[in-house]
Amino acid sequence: KLEFDVNMTCGGCEAKVRQSLQQLGVRDMTIDVGKQIVVVETDIPFTKVQEAIRSTGKIAVLKGFGSSTGSAPGVAAAVSEISGRSGIMGVVRFSQAAEGACIIDGVIDGLQQGHTHRLRIHELGDLSNGCESTGDVYDPEPTGTNHRRPKRYGSLGEIDVDEHGRSVFRRTNDVVKVWDIIGRSLVVCSQNPSQAQRGDVDSCARLACGIIARASGVAQNPKRICACDGVSVWDERDPPGAKKKLNCRLLMNLSLDGKCLHGNLLALSGVLPDEYHEFFHRGGCVTAFKSV
């Protein structure tokens, strides 16, 4: 499920949004004009659903995804905002489905077509030295101890890149559990054609990364005003006095034992592609695993 705040004010707005989503192929949707909420259940990537709503001229802000119920309420969804060299930028979301599979849904820009790009969960959420300090690929069960498992836990596979350097993907993973990866990091790495042909996975160069943080599930985030700057969800793309650049504040504090970092994702503002202007993560907390 995907939950959007949409600035609808009348029945005509609802009709336009419904028609646009139906044309995209969405059949299961709930639209509440009074609460200005649209909830859809679909396997279409969130970016395409968001674009369909915005094509009606309305603002659509993704504020919850996954499920509001489940085997582990409150930790059934996570998000990673990744960035790296040469302007690589992306948002990847993880949602624990009721049947046990993890849904991985994301969009990444700035990649180089023709290279092989892999998505991996790394064991540490330590970005003090960029992606190089995130440790190895996360695997609670070391390779070789389970011969029935063909790859490491954190190896999420390859992602396709279009001619514009963008990758949009949605996939399911039967191994990953959201509550096991919060506080770790998500890394995008790249191999040139010759490296990929040799099958040398360890030669994958780390391009971009981000900490995996807890995120809101459906109906878990009623906020429409950010407590840190007073900007509403409808105005956050152009808040008063905002500079025309990314301004993402991540406040970090060492825990008492010094073994991890604890931070609050406080604000995201500036000029970015629409997919990155999300509201649900404001005020969310992340505990990042850090080497000692």
Give short descriptive properties of this protein.
292 residues, single chain, HMA_dom_sf, mainly beta, copper ion binding, eight-stranded antiparallel sheet, four-stranded antiparallel sheet, 4 helices, Alpha-Beta Plaits, Immunoglobulin-like
CATH superfamily of the domain at 77-214, called what? Superoxide dismutase, copper/zinc binding domain
The arrangement of helices and strands along the chain is EHEEHEEEEEEEEHEHEEEE
CATH class of the domain at 77-214: Mainly Beta
Under the CATH scheme, which architecture of the domain at 77-214 would be assigned?
Sandwich
* Average pLDDT, all residues: 75
Number of continuous helical runs: 4
Largest pleated sheet: 8 strands, antiparallel
Indicate the proportion of strand residues.
35-45%
Domain HMA: 1-61
Cofactor: Cu(2+)
Pfam families: HMA (PF00403), Sod_Cu (PF00080)
Family: In the C-terminal section; belongs to the Cu-Zn superoxide dismutase family.
How would you summarize this macromolecular structure in one to three sentences?
The protein is mostly beta strands and 292 residues long. It has helices spanning 11-24, 46-54, 178-181, 193-198, and strands spanning 2-6, 28-32, 37-41, 60-65, 77-84, 89-96, 102-109, 116-122, 128-131, 155-159, 167-173, 185-191, 205-214, 247-254, 260-269, 285-289. Among the domains are: 1-58, Alpha-Beta Plaits, CATH 3.30.70.100; 77-214, Superoxide dismutase, copper/zinc binding domain (Immunoglobulin-like, Sandwich).
